[in-house]
Amino acid sequence: MNSIVRRASEWKPHFQILLAPAQAVSWNYLHLFVALIAGFFLQMLVLPCMYGIGIWRNEMAMYFNAMILLRIGVACLLKETGNAWIIYAILCYTSAFWLLALTDLILFFDGQSH
After folding, report:
1. Measured by CB atoms within 10 angstroms of the end CB, which terminus of the chain is less buried, N or C?
2. How far is residue 10's CA from residue 51's CA, in Å, rounded to a whole number?
3. Confidence of residue 50 (pLDDT cuts 50, 70, 90)
4. Which residue, 65, 54, 59, 57, is CA-closest to 93?
């Protein structure tokens, strides 16, 4: 009977074998740079280039790109881990569209909407 019934201290759940220890996942820098380049080209294609307003929109896009590059550099220096890089990649891929909407909103409230 003792061989059939295990003591509580010897019992281990079956799923414990399948669980691996948590490993720190580094940022995917290659994907981030591809997203940044793709976002840059989309910004150049989508953002209209109308003299003053277009130059201002493109400047805002370049400031955004500089902030993302700075953030990637800080993450690389600090050897950050996790999935936060995915948020920055999504921001880069969609930057042309939300920058256009944001600048339109700013111009609307400033009374310079065209």
Report:
1. N
2. 76
3. confident
4. 65
DSSP H stretches of helix in 1-114: 15-18, 29-46, 51-78, 85-110
- Residue where the block lists tokens 């939300």: 98
pLDDT digits 0-9 by tens, 73-104 = 999 999 999 999 999 999 999 999 999 999 88
**Nearest partner of 28 among 86, 94, 90, judged by Cα:** 86
Quick one: how far is CA 5 from the chain centroid? Answer: 52
Specify the DSSP element, H or E, that contains 82: none
Backbone angles phi, psi at 81, to 5 degrees: -125, 165
